[in-house]
Amino acid sequence: MAVTGAAGFVGRRLVRHLLDRGHAVRGVVRSGPEALALRDAGCESAIADVRDAASLRRAFAGARAVIHLVAIIRGRGAETFDAVNHAGAAAAAAAAREAGAARFLHLGALGAGPGATRYLRSKWLGEEAVRRAGVPFVIFRPSILIGPGGGAAAQFADVVRFGPWYPFVLLFGGRGVFARLASLTPLLPVLGSGRYRSMPLALNDVLPAIVASVDRPDVVGQTYEIGGPQALTYNEIMDTTARVLGLRRRRVSLPPGAAKAVVRALSLLPNPPITEDERQALFVDNLCDNAPVQQAFHLPLRPFEVAMREALEPARANE
């Protein structure tokens, strides 16, 4: 089967999960070095770009299934939400149909919808394109994914570690210097009340459902929302992360008006810690009912603290 975005945070774990279970995998990536790394890991590779339909058709040739993971959470230059999350998903689904794939599995995002933020709206438009493409599909809408090697777990950890110095770490590096400064100012700025809720999900908990969907006829045409077993406030997520890291931090709430002004100022940085689109999404509860996905796949869902410990322990061992 072909996996787009095979070199990304989710893709690396999914490819390893598939290989460990004896599946033949073709990792679809954008560059030669990424393709070489996949081959070194025992995986066939192909180079393609979701903005190039011909390259996708070549990459998918002979694949019985396509798992589409490519997406961006921030636009940059020609890589816009519309070009990658919407048109890219449409191109991948069309290429899978033309290549004769029997199944197209698409990774969406919890909260996607026509009235959502720009990112989540682009994900919804991508889903709609998949539904219209004429290839048998299954769509998964996961919540915030927690796993080793980056992603939300690493970001949560850095927000807690560096507190008010986090934007400076993104701008200048110098993690050791700013960690020492953070120890002298053990504060944790929180945008707004911090009572907005989400359901962080262990990445490894959703992978079995994605793999099972390759062959099961009873799940074709379905869209499954999936979150972790707990609906947690942002404050609870930060407190748990601090506990996992063995740090003590005092939360300081910024009123909504001040939070908006801070985000506007931070948006001037080359790599802002949060964008206005992300701020708007943050302030809205992003929850789901896990009953349908559990009925279909019977997944063991790890509590957030367990998922964070598993995600961060390798990194902590190297500190």
Secondary structure class reads: alpha/beta
**Quantity of strands, as a count:** 13
Strand order of the largest sheet: 3-2-1-4-5-6-11
Question: Uncertain regions: pLDDT < 50 for 5+ in a row?
Answer: none
The largest sheet, given as strand count, sense and whether it forms a barrel, is: 7 strands, parallel
Q: How much helical structure, as a percent, in the residues?
A: 40-55%
Distance between the terminal alpha carbons, to the nearest Å?
A: 37 Å
Rg from Cα:
20 Å
Number of helices: 14
Mean of residue pLDDT values? 94
The string of secondary-structure elements, in order, is: EHEHEHEHEHEEHHHEEEHEEHEHHHH
Q: Which geometry do the CA atoms define?
A: globular
Strand content: 15-25%
SSE blueprint:
Elements: E1 2-4, H1 9-20, E2 26-29, H2 32-40, E3 44-47, H3 53-60, E4 65-68, H4 81-98, E5 103-107, H5 118-132, E6 137-142, E7 145-146, H6 151-162, H7 166-172, H8 175-184, E8 187-191, E9 197-198, E10 201-202, H9 203-212, E11 223-226, E12 232-233, H10 234-245, E13 250-254, H11 256-266, H12 276-282, H13 291-297, H14 304-317
Parallel strand pairs: 1-2, 1-4, 2-3, 4-5, 5-6, 6-11, 7-10, 8-13
Antiparallel strand pairs: 9-12
Helix pairs in contact: 1-9, 3-4, 4-5, 6-10, 10-14
